[in-house]
Design brief:
This is protein acetyllysine N-acetyltransferase. It comes from Haemophilus influenzae. GO terms for molecular function: hydrolase activity; NAD+ binding; NAD-dependent protein lysine deacetylase activity. Pfam families: SIR2. Residues 1-71 form the Deacetylase sirtuin-type domain. The chain is mostly helical. It folds into 2 domains: 1-35; 38-71, no CATH class. The protein has helices at residues 12-17, 19-35, 40-51, 64-68.
């Protein structure tokens, strides 16, 4: 469920109307983010870095690139 698709949990009005539902929605998203593991794309970047001078530029705020290998 993306915020653009569900006004029941992704608006200030929703927070006022049903705080518990909104908090659970975002808590679940946080749990999913914390449980995420590096995928094959992250690992491929690590492998590229072993052979070439590669600089990774990302807007991601997770640590999946770092967990895949040292940058």
């Amino acid at each position: 469920m993306a915020c653009g698709q569900d006004k029941e949990v992704c608006t200030p009005e929703a927070l006022k109307k049903n705080r518990a539902k909104v908090l659970e929605f975002y808590n679940e998203r946080r749990r999913n983010a914390q449980a995420a593991e590096p995928n094959t794309a992250h690992l491929a970047l690590v492998e590229l870095k072993e052979f070439y001078e590669v600089h990774i530029i990302t807007q991601n705020v997770d640590d999946l690139h770092e967990r895949a290998g040292k940058y």
